[in-house]
Design goal:
370 residues, Serine Threonine Protein Phosphatase 5, Tetratricopeptide repeat, disordered C terminus
């Protein structure tokens, strides 16, 4: 039996805040309670309020503020001797690192968070941290390693009736299936996630699921109108809850759908929009993937072939630096698709392998939900 969705990262005086609360409201309440906790001298409450502040900043794309807040929350938790609170702060920091494209740091912090959650007896913190590790591996493209962990976390979430975590795990597994070409099973999982999220009143989870459904029906069925309608519904939720990162990924998917439909001029403008949104929140992974879509749209609209090749060279280097294992394959496929050769000898490209579902490189490389 699935419960209503809860937000365990809202703790202490913020426990009653809804998972669907606007992030600006969460930030305002978090700051208010943080100041009160600081005046009272309770380091434990400082840590708890600080966690909500960090997460609100992160999801609003305010990365510098989020970085300061999670570190302050960790210091307060350590001062209070609360290992569980330390785990949550590390989870927040690891999730922020992934959002910023620092995948090695994300693995390190999330691993420490999982260990701290286990030591502190906080099952939920440990579960969220393991989920963070799984999502980081999935975003990196290491599907073989993290698929089993995703399945394990899904089974645990179902057993505990944790709707929000169940939705997350379903979406993660669906994304792996989508990226490896199993579109039918991916669609089934995204649809189940959307249904569960709706029943549990998890609007954020439903918005991500709708994005996944839109991707599949566009890619598999060419159902452009349906896909755009689903994305519009999800976008309304993103705007109401001020989900900056989710909104940027929604726009990137809208551009993908338009590109697949041959509506290249429209796709170019929406890729530009998403690119600006990712830059504003310092999210290099999303920025690089939106850039790749923009390069492809411009090429279809007649951009010079040499300039297109130079753009792809730069992008492949950028994606490699982020650490995405499938970056080389994604860009190589774009070279072949656009009929261009690398501009520089050091970027020589072997013949690309057929990779199911990879033809729209910016479509399914990950999201940053957590």
């Amino acid at each position: 039996m699935q419960t209503k969705a809860l937000a365990p990262e809202y703790q202490g005086a913020l426990t009653r805040m809804s998972v669907n609360a606007s992030l600006t409201d969460v930030l305002a309440e978090g700051v208010r309670h943080l100041k009160r906790a600081e005046r009272s001298g309770s380091q434990e409450e400082v840590a708890r309020a600080g966690l909500a502040v960090a997460e609100a900043h992160r999801r609003l794309g305010q990365v510098a503020e989020a970085d300061r807040a999670w570190k302050a929350s960790y210091r307060a938790a350590r001062s209070a001797g609360n290992t569980g609170a330390m785990a949550w702060a590390l989870w927040s920091g690891g999730t922020l690192a992934r959002q910023r494209g620092s995948l090695r740091l994300a693995f390190r912090l999330l691993g420490l968070a999982a260990e701290a959650g286990k030591r502190g007896g906080d099952v939920v913190a440990r579960g969220y941290s393991l989920a963070g590790l799984a999502e980081t591996g999935r975003i990196q493209g290491d599907y073989a390693t993290v698929a089993t962990l995703h399945e394990q976390l899904l089974a645990e979430a179902r057993a505990r009736g944790e709707a929000r975590h169940t939705v997350w795990a379903l979406e993660g597994i669906a994304q792996i299936h989508r990226n490896t070409g199993s579109l039918d099973s991916a669609l089934e999982m995204f649809e189940e996630a959307a249904e569960l999220a709706g029943a549990a009143d998890d609007r954020r989870g439903r918005a991500w699921a709708l994005r996944g459904i839109a991707d599949i029906v566009s890619l598999r069925d060419g159902a452009t109108a349906r896909a755009l309608g689903l994305l519009s519904e999800a976008e309304a939720t993103c705007r109401e809850m001020n989900l900056s990162s989710a909104l940027a990924y929604n726009h990137k998917m809208r551009a993908n759908v338009l590109f697949r439909a041959g509506r290249y001029a429209e796709a170019r403008e929406v890729y530009k929009q998403a690119l600006g949104e990712f830059r504003a929140m310092d999210e290099p992974r999303g920025e690089a993937l939106a850039s790749l879509g923009l390069v492809k749209a411009r090429a279809r609209l007649g951009r010079d072939r040499d300039a297109t090749a130079a753009d792809l060279d730069e992008l492949r280097g950028r994606l490699d630096r982020i650490g995405l294992l499938n970056a080389r394959e994604m860009v190589e496929k774009a070279y072949a698709e656009l009929g261009v050769e690398p501009a520089s000898p050091e970027h020589s490209v072997p013949a690309p392998a057929d990779a199911p579902g990879a033809e729209t490189a910016s479509a399914g490389a990950g999201d940053g939900r957590r």
